[in-house]
Structure formats: C-alpha cells, structure tokens
Amino acid sequence: MAHEVFDHPNRLTKPLKRIGERGEGKWQEISWPQAMDEIAEKLKAVIHQYGPEGLAVSSGPWNSSTESGMTRRLMNLLGAPNYISPVALCLGNTAAINRLTYGWMPLPDFENTQCVVIMGHNPHNQSWVWEYIRLRLAEKRGAKLICFDPRVSHTAERADIHLTLNPGTDGALCMGWLSVIIEEELYDKSFVKNWTVGFDALKQRLRNDFTLDKVSRITGVPEHQIAESARMYANASSAIIPWSPITDQHVSSTSAIRAISILRAITGNLDAPGGEMLMGMNPNIVTESQIELNDILTDEQKKKQLGYDKHPAFTFKAADLLSEHSERVFGIKYPNIVKGTNMAVPSPTFRAMAYGDPYPVKAFISIANNALMGYGNQTLIKKAMMNQDLNVSFELFMTPTANLCDYVLPGDTWLERPNLMDSYEWATMLQSSHQLYEPPGECKNVYYFLKQLADRMGLEKHFPWQTITDLFDYRLQPLGLSFNEFRDSYKMLIAEYKHYNYKKTGFATPSGKVELYSSVLEELGCDPLPYYRNVPEPCEEYPLKFFVGIREPQFFQSSQRHTKALRKGNKVPRTFINAADAEKYGLTNGEWATIESVAGKIHMLVLIRDDIPPGLIRVPHGWWLPEEKDLGAFEHNDGIIVPDTDEYLDREQGIPHLKGVPCKIYPRTESREYIGMAGLS
Ligand SMILES: Nc1nc2c(c(=O)[nH]1)N[C@H]1C(S)=C(S)[C@@H](COP(=O)(O)OP(=O)(O)OC[C@H]3O[C@@H](n4cnc5c(=O)[nH]c(N)nc54)[C@H](O)[C@@H]3O)O[C@H]1N2
Ligand SMILES: Nc1nc2c(c(=O)[nH]1)N[C@H]1C(S)=C(S)[C@@H](COP(=O)(O)OP(=O)(O)OC[C@H]3O[C@@H](n4cnc5c(=O)[nH]c(N)nc54)[C@H](O)[C@@H]3O)O[C@H]1N2
Ligand SMILES: [Mo]
C-alpha cells in the first residue's frame, strides 16, 4: 500500500510556516533556508533566555534509523538533556530496565527454543511479522506456547496454556511463577549460586508478598494454573519470554520487566541455546551511541533532565550507574539500546512545557512522531505545545501535532532514501536498503534537517557529512566498505555470537552478576526487588476498565488514516465490548458511544464482541480524522483518557498505565456530523 499512502495529495512537499493562530491551519509555503534560518534564530533566543534545557525533542522510534544518533548528538552539543520518545512506552523502556538486571536487552532465540511465553503481545501476519513467523515455526517444531491475556486473542487461541489474568497484573503473575519455581526448586541451582546476587532477599519477598493464594486473588488466575504453567516454563529444556509492549505499559512496569528478567535468569536461559541472547552491538560499525556523544553532556545538565530524580530508571541517572560496566563488557559506555536509555521522562517534560515547573521549556521539536497523540494525557500535551515559543514538526503529513506547530518540514519516506539499519543496537544484525525514488517536492531526510539546524547553531564542524550516504560511509569505516559496497554485498551482516559469553566477561552490572536484588535501583532510591501495585479499582462512577490496544491491520500507530483504501475496512475508531456490558450500559452495536475516565472523554463506535471479558473494554490507539476540519484531533485518541497523575504512573519510569484504567461508557449524547470517507482524496 506504500504508493497509495505516500503518493497522496495530503503529502507535505514544501516547508510551511504558520500564519494564523496556532491550530487554525493557515500556512504559507516558504523555502528550506528561510525555514531553517527562522527556526535557528528562535531556538537561539530560547536557549539564550532559558538555557539549553529549554528545548525538548520528541522523536519517533521506528523511522529514525536514518537519524543515526544525530538528534542526540545535536542536543548533547547544545547541552540539551530533554530528549523524549514514545519508545518509552514500548521496546525502549524494556531495554533500559533489562539492563538493571543483567546489563543488556536479550534477543529471543526463537529458532531453537522449546517454550515461548507471550504476555498480551499478539503478533499477526499483519502486525509484528518477524515474530509472527518465528512463533509459527516454533509451534510447528512442537515448542510449547503459554499466553497471558485477559481476552481470547489470536495468540491465546493457539496456546497450550492461556492464562486469563486481570489486566495490569502480569508482574504479579510472574512473581507467582517465581514463587513456584523457587519453592519447588525448579531453578538452575549452579547458575543461581555462581551468577546471581540477592537470591535470599528475593525468596523472602516472594514468601512475604507473593504466596500463591495472594497472586491468585490479584491476577484472577487459579492457583493450580499458576503452578502448572510455571512448571511448564521452568521444566522446558529451553524457553524464551519475548519482549512484550504490554508490560511496558503498566503502572508496575518496572517490576513486571524485572520479574520477567529474573525468570529468564534463574531458569538458566540467559545466553543458552534456545534461550535469551545477550548479543551486544556489531563491532563493524560506528554505533549510534558513539555518534550521540553522550559523554560530553555535563553532570549539571544531566541533572536537569526532566524526570531525573522522580522517575530515574531510564534517565541519565540510571545510565551513569551502568556506564562503566557497559564499557567493560560491551565496549560502550552509553549503549542506547532501542533508543530507550538516558531519556527524559515524557510526563514531567510536558508539565515543564505547560507550567514552567521546575523550569520553563519553550521550544519543542517533533521528529517523525505524532507527539500530541503518542503519550498519556493528551490534554496536557496540547497545553504544553500551546505554551511554546517555538514548535517544529518534521513530518510526512499534516498531523494533529504538526497542526499545532509554527513550522512544518516535509520529510522523505523509507522508499525515498538509502538506509542503514543496526537492529536498534539491540543485536548485531546490520542491514541496508536502497533508495528507490527521488523524494517528491522538497522532502528531505532527517539528517538533512539536523545538519541544517546544526550548521546554523554554530556546530558545523561536528556535522561534517554532507549527505546521509557520507554519514553511512563514515559509520561503516570499521568494516572497510563504503555504504554502496556494503549495500551491494550483504543482505544482512551478523557478528559472531557465542553462547555463555558472560562466563568470560561477567554481566554488565555493578556486581558483574545477575542482580536479582538491583543495586542500581537501590542507589536510585527505588525498591531493589520487584513488587506489585495497580491503579485504583473501578468504582461507582467508573465501573469498567479499558485497555488500549489490539493493533489494527490497516494502520501503523497514528498513521495512514488519510488512505481511502485502508479506511474502507476501518472507517472510524471502534471500542469492543462484551454483549452483557453493552446491554447494561444501553449501547447498541454500530452506534456511537462516549468513554470517560478521570482524564477526559472520547467517542467511538460500539462493536459487540465475545472475545472481550465482562468489565473490560478495548480502546484503539492513535485515532484522528484527517478529513475533518479540526482533524478530529481532540475527540478520539486514546491518549485523551489515559491519566498521568502519580497514581497512574509507574514509579521508577514515570510512564502511564494503558492496560486497565477505570472508565465509564454511555451512548453518545452530543450530536456531531462527520464528513466521512467522502472527505478523503
Ligand atoms: N497514548 C498512547 N501512546 C502510545 C502508544 C499507545 O498505544 N497509546 N503506543 C506506544 C508505542 S507501542 C509506540 S511504538 C509509540 C509509537 O510512536 P511513533 O512511532 O512516533 O508513532 P506516531 O505517533 O504514530 O508517529 C509517527 C509519525 O511519523 C510520521 N512518519 C512516518 N514515517 C516517517 C518518515 O519516514 N519520515 C518522517 N519525517 N515522518 C514519518 C508519521 O506520519 C506519523 O505521524 O507510541 C507509543 N505511545
Ligand atoms: N498493523 C499494525 N501492526 C503493528 C502496529 C500497528 O500500529 N499496526 N504497531 C506495532 C507496535 S509499535 C507494537 S508495540 C506492536 C503492538 O502489538 P501487540 O503487542 O500485539 O499489541 P496489541 O495488538 O495491542 O495486543 C494487545 C493484547 O494484549 C492484551 N492485553 C491487554 N491488556 C493486557 C494486560 O494487562 N496483560 C496482558 N497479558 N495482556 C493484555 C489484549 O487483550 C490484546 O490481545 O504492534 C506492532 N505492529
Ligand atoms: Mo510499539
């Protein structure tokens, strides 16, 4: 569908400057040099008045390999610590939290494993394809599949064991597994003895707080099923728990990810065949982390990073406690695995933008990211953007975020640029892709934008590469090939991987061991052991819970809503609800409903489905309506009803809870005319 999506009349092809009020949608076309001159001038004024911490950048995770670490390089050179990314609600924060336990983010050895545990995450042939294929192949080989999901998902239907837990309780269920595995002595004793610290403290925590009957009460999963599934996992000759975004989006995310990490470790699956591979980075490339120059940011500026003290787990505060150990094992101080480490925390950043607390942030740049819609509390983000001296968006389309900007710059797509992909520094696979087409109009790649800005900020000498290909040539120097040579000689280059590498190097943690009891969390003033916490329970006013999710085959995140052929199969946002609840709340299939939480309200069409359990409803992510005059920007996105007050934020990371927030639902009362499909080109 790429041609229909990208070769579309809505595609941005010229730099735009706002001429009306913010959000009014009145624009003037200007040249790149004029746009960049004005942006640089305004950014200098903000930095002059508020310091470099007065700039925040939000960068989308999946389009930015062309970035090659350049956004953070520019920011570090400016002294600007406030880089945020919605990858903090996805793979990025998982990677950062995994580092606390064993120093890296493992890649599952799907090809050889005998048991796969999937938490919520529901890969399809049209969603997470890489994993979907491997999951099916593992199944064919006879590997066991265990699935945690409150709903009967596609993955759940195929599982050997489906645990229908309450939303938000995966961390507690993992602690239940740990209790069974430790009490029944199903763990790898020699690994635990030689390679872990804190086993006794963990055991005590489990005995005090995670007895099976308690875990069963929290999760809603019967005790015998917890025990049976724990045994299946622990007794498998090899097992993996692939990353799941579900446990990135819980109020106890840190504890859930830590509990998962501990399971992987004590069952002897780290770096074992069919287990969890700690690969490091490919040594044949200048890494993004090196390009970023994280070393040059001063301690004074690092400490200003928003969230640094309150939610430190993926900020510089945690990264600095791990840096010497990462260097020892992987040869790199600040491995930016899946772009998820040493970041600022989104909620405090938007608060600083909106209220100047603890200091003003007055310039905001959004790169390949629909920031307004990609975090919790959308109302706060709007307020934050309205309070800026400068808003810039580097985009393909006029998104609701771009529409609140002063300058909107046209980006190229992956078909219109060469690319060098380094598996997000998660693993050692290097890949390239060809540029197939010239970008339309004046669309440019992100390196062009960053270099234009850097040159004007007096940083020319740090951006010596004239084009993106020059930059890739530089990055491939250790390999001794130019980008074009690499592209033409390799489909993929993987560095040698050896099992049990830690026996030679130790783990990249302060103790050199797997930290069941995390010294880093302790030093950060957080609980060093996993614990359980959930958001407030449903009450009279908000009797149901909603979860954000079930990705839609037609769309990627908040994109593609302008494409008629895709919208045909999915015209408007739809909530899924169980028949009994629909009846109870007076809802009719195919009619509009309003969903309300403490944070706000949104409108969705009702779809009655029997895969959804009573008491829970589904809300899809990222809906806006490009055909509407106001883009439908403030009526449909899940972020509007995702609260970000302290009781809904993970303590250690400050990320919001998307899986099980109290809400109410009722037939929509306000009338609203929609233009509908006819409004799409
Ligand atoms: N409220 C809420 N927030 C979430 C989530 C959620 O479910 N709910 N999900 C989280 C998850 S799992 C993730 S991965 C992140 C995703 O976060 P993002 O990947 O940032 O997703 P989007 O917010 O849809 O923004 C992507 C934008 O980039 C533009 N774009 C796409 N390709 C290119 C390109 O090549 N060049 C340029 N210049 N622009 C491009 C698209 O037009 C689109 O507007 O969001 C997270 N945030
Ligand atoms: N077509 C398409 N593909 C995509 C994307 C897209 O936007 N469109 N986005 C991509 C991205 S960035 C990501 S992160 C992935 C996300 O993709 P997935 O991880 O597969 O996420 P969902 O499709 O939302 O599936 C969520 C599942 O989790 C269950 N669930 C809800 N709450 C909980 C809970 O608390 N615990 C457990 N165990 N389960 C729960 C739901 O019932 C549902 O079955 O998809 C990727 N692939
Ligand atoms: Mo994601």
Throw out a few tags for this protein:
single chain, 681 residues, alpha/beta, Rossmann fold, Dimethylsulfoxide Reductase, domain 2, Barwin-like endoglucanases, 3 domains, six-stranded mixed sheet, 22 strands, globular, binds ligand MGD, binds molybdenum atom
CATH topology of the largest domain: Rossmann fold
Rounded Rg:
24 Å
Number of helices: 24
* Backbone structural class: alpha/beta
Q: How would you explain this protein's 3D organization?
A:
The chain has 681 residues and is an alpha/beta fold. The protein has 3 domains: 10-93 and 281-418, Rossmann fold, CATH 3.40.50; 107-277, 3-Layer(aba) Sandwich (Dimethylsulfoxide Reductase, domain 2), CATH 3.40.228; 544-667, Barwin-like endoglucanases (Beta Barrel), CATH 2.40.40.20. It is 32% helix and 14% strand. The protein contains 24 helices and 22 strands. A 7-stranded mixed sheet has the order 2-1-13-12-11-3-4, with helices on both faces. Strands 18-20-19-22-17-21 form a 6-stranded mixed sheet. A 3-stranded parallel sheet has the order 6-7-8, with helices on both faces. Helix 2 packs across helix 18, helix 7 packs antiparallel against helix 10 (212-219) and helix 16 (346-355) crosses helix 17. The longest helix is centred in the first third of the chain and has 19 residues, at 32-50. The protein binds ligand MGD (2 copies) and molybdenum atom. The site of one ligand MGD has 31 residues, from strand 22.
